[in-house]
Write a structure and sequence with these properties.
Helices cover 30% and strands 20% of the residues. It has 152 residues and is of the alpha/beta class. α2 (94-106) crosses α4 (127-139). The longest helix has 15 residues, at 19-33. The model has no long low-confidence stretch (mean pLDDT 80).
Length: 152
């Protein structure tokens, strides 16, 4: 007989009380950091490179206009003429004025003063099309125009 009695030792259970807090914290982090694109792209564009770029300060008052070659539903370029996309539809140059005017009506008067139109155009787009879009923006009284590019 042994002098010491051997007891069976149990490993304490893992405390799961803080697990929901941890999961909700990580979920909240990803909800804040992730940017969801609300408009599916129907044109493919390759942004030109720039050296003197600045970030937009207030993206809620920014209206985006995409100019590029049309793509099919699978995201592959179909070729053809350059197209203008606003929200989720392809439009022609004269309807740019109506679109921007409807966006201005949707905004509050304070936001209309700081409204910015961001042109995201392919680097190979004809400058005549961009000039036509700029003329339509002038008719819609959209004075702040931003040209998007990538920093390289």
């Amino acid at each position: 007989m042994s002098m010491f009695r051997r007891r069976e030792r149990k490993v304490p259970g893992l405390n799961m009380a803080s697990m929901p807090d941890l999961i909700f914290t990580v979920l909240f982090f990803f909800m804040i950091v992730t940017h969801m694109r609300s408009v599916p792209l129907k044109v493919k564009y390759q942004m030109p490179a720039g050296t003197e770029l600045t970030k937009l300060t207030n993206k809620s008052t920014t209206t985006y206009i995409y100019i590029g070659r049309p793509v099919n539903g699978k995201g592959q370029e179909t070729g053809g003429e350059m197209q203008i996309q606003m929200n989720d539809k392809l439009v022609d140059v004269p309807s740019v004025t109506d679109y921007v005017a409807s966006e201005r009506k949707r905004m509050s008067p304070e936001d209309v003063e700081v409204m910015t139109v961001s042109l995201k155009a392919d680097k190979n787009v004809d400058m005549g099309l961009i000039t036509d879009v700029k003329q339509a923006l002038r008719k819609a009284k959209a004075g702040k125009v931003n040209y998007s590019g990538v920093y390289r």
